[in-house]
């Protein structure tokens, strides 16, 4: 259990440190072009993708966007493009982790990244690299800790239920994301479980659906007392993911087969499923962008 706690601390802490370093290094460059990059849905999607990759969190991008809309810095329609891209950009963490770094390389590279943190000109780069390597170190600890979970009867019983009942997998994904306050961290943990054979790939797909829905809860709560336009942004985030689940639920076997074309590795397939789900869910909205925006306005009426 100690290895699991330390591993989670390093994983979540690593995500936060990498997010901070990337934000400090690049976010100020994006602020000056926010208006230009949100003039069309396509540009907004690109901006949302880049920003979510920097912040390593679609929830953080959604909360920032809600704040900008609340302050009348951008309109709901401009913000909607960013939300579509945020779901894509958040996949970067999972894809980075799927690359894996051998444990014998982590400590030397971590020492180098800490030296970069001391060097003023490269401090932000050093922080981002330190965060990334901390994530890999956390994963190594989680692997050793999670192996013991297979001996827990409660864990085994739940996994058996999730394997036979997709809704258990979806609810598990929602709860895991709420617990970690990070769909990326929840998906990374899922990758480890799949790699160790504790979760089959179809169950992992359903958990990913839940992870994406769970990532929207914070933005809904945050926008509860916000202006109408800001609440529409939060609604668009959750509706985007719910519609994605509705579309992909009957196509789960197709999604799994598509992931298998990219890699034979189970954890890699989980990362691919997560990425395909988010990319396709966002891209399928672009052709009906205006209709989607009108639907949100019907659900959250007001001026």
Description:
This protein is an all-alpha fold. The protein is built from 17 helices and no strands. It has one domain (2-299). Helix content is 81%, strand content 0%. The relative contact order is 0.13. One of its GO terms (molecular function) is sodium:phosphate symporter activity.
List the helices and strands and how they pair.
Blueprint: H1 2-31, H2 34-37, H3 41-55, H4 58-70, H5 76-89, H6 91-99, H7 103-118, H8 123-146, H9 153-164, H10 166-180, H11 183-195, H12 201-214, H13 217-222, H14 228-248, H15 252-262, H16 266-283, H17 289-299
Helix pairs in contact: 1-3, 1-8, 3-5, 4-5, 4-14, 5-14, 5-16, 6-11, 6-16, 7-8, 8-11, 9-10, 10-11, 10-12, 11-12, 11-16, 12-14, 12-15, 12-16, 14-16, 14-17, 15-16
Tertiary shape:
globular
Report the major sheet: none
Write down the oligomeric state: single chain
- What pattern of helices and strands is seen along the backbone? HHHHHHHHHHHHHHHHH
Number of helices: 17
Q: What low-confidence regions span 5 or more consecutive residues with pLDDT below 50?
A: none
* Ends apart, CA distance between termini: 52 Å
Mean pLDDT, all residues = 79
Helical content stands at over 70%
Produce a short descriptive summary:
This protein is mostly helical and 303 residues long. Helix content is 81%, strand content 0%.
Descriptive keywords:
cell membrane, Na/Pi_transpt, transmembrane helix, mainly alpha, sodium:phosphate symporter activity, 17 helices, transmembrane, globular
């Amino acid at each position: 259990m100690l290895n699991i706690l330390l591993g989670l601390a390093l994983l979540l802490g690593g995500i936060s440190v990498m997010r901070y370093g990337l934000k400090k290094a690049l976010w100020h460059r994006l602020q000056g072009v926010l208006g230009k990059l949100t003039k069309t849905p396509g540009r907004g999607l690109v901006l949302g993708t880049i920003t979510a990759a920097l912040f390593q969190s679609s929830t953080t991008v959604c909360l920032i966007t809600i704040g900008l809309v609340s302050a009348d810095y951008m309109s709901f329609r401009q913000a909607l493009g960013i939300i579509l891209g945020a779901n894509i950009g958040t996949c970067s963490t999972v894809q980075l982790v799927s690359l894996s770094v051998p444990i014998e390389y982590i400590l030397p590279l971590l020492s180098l990244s800490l030296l970069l943190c001391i060097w003023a000109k490269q401090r932000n780069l050093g922080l981002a690299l330190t965060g990334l390597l901390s994530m890999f170190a956390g994963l190594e600890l989680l692997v050793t800790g999670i192996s013991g979970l297979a001996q827990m009867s409660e864990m085994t019983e739940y996994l058996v239920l999730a394997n036979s009942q997709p809704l258990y997998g979806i609810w598990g994904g929602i709860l895991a994301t709420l617990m970690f306050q990070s769909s990326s961290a929840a998906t990374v943990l899922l990758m480890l479980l799949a790699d160790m054979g504790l979760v089959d790939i179809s169950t992992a797909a359903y958990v990913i659906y839940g992870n994406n829905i769970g990532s929207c809860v914070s933005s809904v709560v945050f926008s509860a007392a916000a202006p109408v336009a800001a609440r529409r942004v939060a609604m668009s985030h959750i509706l985007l993911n719910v519609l994605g689940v509705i579309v992909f639920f009957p196509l789960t076997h197709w999604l799994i087969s598509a992931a298998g074309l990219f890699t034979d590795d189970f954890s890699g397939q989980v990362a691919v499923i997560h990425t395909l789900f988010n990319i396709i869910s966002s891209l399928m909205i672009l052709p009906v962008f205006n209709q989607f925006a009108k639907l949100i306005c019907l659900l959250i009426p007001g001026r």
